[in-house]
Design goal:
- This protein is of the alpha/beta class and about 300 residues long.
- The protein has three domains: about 80 residues, Arc Repressor Mutant, subunit A; about 110 residues, D-Maltodextrin-Binding Protein, domain 2 (3-Layer(aba) Sandwich); about 100 residues, Periplasmic binding protein-like II (D-Maltodextrin-Binding Protein, domain 2), CATH 3.40.190.10.
- It is about 45% helix and about 20% strand.
- The strands form two sheets. Strands 1, 2, 3, 4, 7, 8 and 9 form a seven-stranded mixed β-sheet that branches. A two-stranded parallel sheet has the order 5-6.
- The longest helix is centred in the N-terminal third of the chain and has 28 residues.
- The termini are far apart.
Length: about 300
């Protein structure tokens, strides 16, 4: 059986035209190269070079060089690609995230990630938490960012940040005149627009507002449009509220009202290096946002 290394030595010697230069390029001795070439010639059943100086190819040598060069080059490319993949410099990573994380955490994380790994393709889909979890469990995506409620034995869950709920209203709403955190009694039930996120918090005062709300919207985009139309106020995680908008995000007097965001992957399964690298950038961005959310 002819080893690929035999062909690599042959191509190097043929290109160099003599043993010493090829030996220096390959980091081996001329004697070792000579022995390798002899073994290759024995395997092929003929001489590759005219004479001992290796300056001229025989007809077999010319034919062998034509056949061996693309094979050696292809092997070099394959090995280089494998090394790049192992370093996380190439590949394709699929991510699913709740809309607020997709809109606010991911752009900066991906910008830094692609500055270092421009050849990695990332596919990002924004869906709700339950769909994110199912996408990870079903191996549709590599990484998920969502709120995990309960326990999943086959998921690895890493806490990213606690996103505090805030009252969202128009800038000219009466709540904007308060110089303190908004209390439950400040909210008129007829002015409250319920949504799926706040409906699951199980706070008695909030449950009362949800039960008496005239509107219940499940889409955050639609919900914010209704608030902009002066249809009422709502309660949302801070990351869901666009920055620099015509909306206000007001603090909630009720302590500990947060939405937990987690980074999730399938447990006990190795991720490709590019996915591991992207997780690091998502984690860094979550730390940046945590510091922003903690600012008064």
């Amino acid at each position: 059986m002819i080893k690929l290394e035999y062909l690599r030595v042959f191509v190097a010697v043929a290109d160099a035209g003599e043993l010493h230069t090829a030996a220096a390029q390959l980091g081996r001795t001329p004697a070792a190269l000579s022995m390798t070439l002899k073994q290759l010639e024995e395997s092929l059943g003929g001489s590759l070079f005219e004479g001992e100086r290796k300056g001229h190819l025989t007809p077999l040598g010319t034919f062998a060089l034509h056949q061996a060069r693309p094979l050696v080059n292809q092997c070099d490319h394959v090995v280089a690609d494998m090394r790049k993949f192992a370093l996380g410099a190439t590949g394709a990573v699929k991510v699913a995230a709740v809309p607020s994380a997709a809109a606010l955490l991911m752009p900066a994380a991906l910008k830094r990630f692609h500055a270092q790994r421009a050849e990695v393709r990332v596919e990002l889909r924004d869906i709700d938490s339950s769909a994110v979890i199912q996408s990870v469990l079903n191996n549709v995506v590599d990484v998920g960012v969502a709120s995990v409620v309960g326990s999943f034995s086959n998921l690895r869950v890493q806490h990213l940040l606690d996103d505090p709920f805030v009252w969202v209203c128009k800038r000219n709403h009466p709540l904007s005149q308060l110089r303190r955190a908004v209390k439950w009694r400040d909210i008129n039930p007829s002015d409250f627009i319920a949504n799926g996120l706040c409906a699951g918090l199980h706070v008695p005062e909030l449950d009362h507002l949800v039960q008496h709300a005239k509107l219940m919207l499940l889409s955050t985009t639609s919900l914010l449009s209704f608030v902009r139309a002066d249809m009422g106020v709502t309660l949302l995680p801070a990351l869901s509220v666009p920055l620099g908008d015509d909306l206000l995000a007001l603090p909630v007097a009720h302590k500990g009202l947060n939405r937990r965001l987690d980074l999730i992957t399938v447990d006990n399964v190795s991720l490709q290096p590019a996915a591991e690298a992207l997780i690091q950038h998502i984690t860094i961005e979550a730390e940046i946002w945590t510091s922003k959310l903690l600012q008064p």
